[in-house]
Amino acid sequence: MLSLVQVLLSGVATGCVYGLVALSFVLIYKATETVSFMQGDLLMLGAFAALGLHLYVGLPLLPAAIVAVIAVGMLGAGLERAVLRRALGQPHLVAVLLTFGLGMMMRGGVASVPAAAQEVHRLPFAADTLAIGPLVLAASHLWVTLATVVLAGLLAAFFRYTRTGLALRACSEDARVAALMGVPVARMHTLSWALGAALAACAGLLLAPVTFVHLNMGFIALKAFPAAVLGGLTSLPGALVAGVFLGVVEALAGLALPEGVKDVVPYALLMGALLLFPQGLGARRAGRNGT
Prior knowledge:
By secondary structure, the protein is mainly alpha-helical.
């Protein structure tokens, strides 16, 4: 029973990271109808940026993490302005290939740094363990879960109570009507890419205490994308819930099934769900409240 509880908590923590990356997919897709395949590389870049600021610039860990998230968010906004805006009105494949190419450029840039390409690092967020009676929990798992709840609450408050958040929601529902109502659609597109990049960087920082910071850590986005699709690619709550669900199911599969099978579980669930719910599990709810 203790092992089961520990596996479930580990699955929830991993699922929270999946959910945050899935949120970044959905934020961008809702505003621009573009699927970004550079989210995993932004995740990796955020973790390495915080690591570099902490180890080589000398910033304390928390300020380094905040600066890294802001910097990656600004990078996302800059890429939208300089490159991705040119894909508007073009076939969807153009934007997909652009984001894929930009991700490869980020990966290549990090790989050109010998310390990043050849060594494995770990950000020391909550490195201790917590003992609750006979149950021993990794503090990093609790840290990831708590931070995800806080980020989700801040994001919900932003979309519900701020003028900018309401404008971004209006733009994601119908850009033409939003423009007629005075919403600066181009600026909202830039904001959506910035928020998506910043969320990916946050996911990288939360993943760092659970795993090591390395060049391939961005591949976790390949598991987060099924969570975004299961949520309908239009529902922010659906993406987060689907991410946690996939993390828990994957952890249970790793406990009960042979090694390696758990990596297939997210895609098997995705295929099965899409056969039953072609528009995603969160599509109907998103249609009612637009969030």
